[in-house]
Write a structure and sequence with these properties.
The chain is built from twelve helices and four strands; from the N terminus they run ααβαβαααααββαααα. With about 230 residues, it is mainly α. It has one domain. The strands form two sheets. A two-stranded antiparallel sheet has the order 1-2. The protein starts with 5 loop residues before the first helix and ends with a helix. It holds the Pfam family OGG.
């Protein structure tokens, strides 16, 4: 495995910005399959997914805004979850029907809301709400996806403590000093998540202190975006 020094990481981070690479990270995504499947399951499909167009553009800004509606009680947490799943899975349909079926029950909403609220102050508590004792609470919704929900629950706050951690992020972090030795298993435990978040925060802090003027405002989610992109290229 390639070992990255913090100087190398800082150099690579200078080509990124939170505005462009994090907040504006989005995709044009087809909606027909999702609308058909959600209606099959008896779910009311709300905009933007439930609009008239056969495709929508979803970026992190939009998902932060939807999360705010969940927290203030004006949007069903399940609807928010399906939008995040669309953003996270893109054109891939693998396991999404199973995810829909595991989340569709109305009783799921309070559990999702509790986990999203917990993510704002206690990533550990939120992680356990989604996965405990080696089992995912919702079928086919493992850490790669539910940590996205935990992250977006922060509504875009740069200091939000819950971050997205999937196998690509773990693979990059494992080659850095702060993340050395991290497991890259898909269904990882809470301890791996907390250590990965700490590594992302440590790299962001070191970047802010590096002397690079481009990195004075470096955030942990910018480091996450860098880690994901770097692994995708390798």
């Amino acid at each position: 495995m390639e070992t990255l020094t913090l100087d190398q990481v800082h150099h690579e981070l200078t080509s990124l910005s939170r505005e462009k690479d994090v907040l504006n990270q989005g995709f044009e995504l087809g909606t027909s399959w999702w609308r058909d499947e959600l209606r099959r399951a008896g779910m009311e499909v709300l905009p933007p997914l439930g609009g008239d167009s056969t495709s929508i553009y979803l970026d992190r800004r939009t998902l932060f805004a939807l999360a705010s509606e969940v927290i203030d009680g004006s949007r069903d947490p399940r609807d928010f979850t399906f939008h995040v799943l669309l953003w996270g899975s893109g054109t891939t349909r693998r396991n999404n029907r199973g995810r829909i079926d595991s989340l569709i029950a109305p009783t799921t909403s309070p559990a999702l809301l509790d986990a999203l609220q917990a993510a704002q102050t206690s990533p550990s508590t939120a992680f356990d709400a989604f996965r405990s004792r080696g089992r995912n609470t919702f079928a086919y919704l493992g850490p790669a996806y539910f940590t996205k929900l935990m992250y977006f629950a922060g509504q875009g706050r740069p200091t939000h403590p819950a971050l997205i951690v999937d196998r690509r992020v773990l693979a990059t972090l494992a080659g850095t000093e702060p993340g050395s030795g991290l497991s890259t298993a898909a269904n990882y435990p809470r301890e791996t998540y907390l250590r990965a978040c700490s590594a992302l925060e440590a790299i962001a802090a070191s970047a802010r202190d590096s002397g690079h003027p481009e990195l004075t405002g470096c955030t942990a989610d910018l480091v996450e975006r860098w880690a994901f992109g770097r692994a995708a290229l390798n």
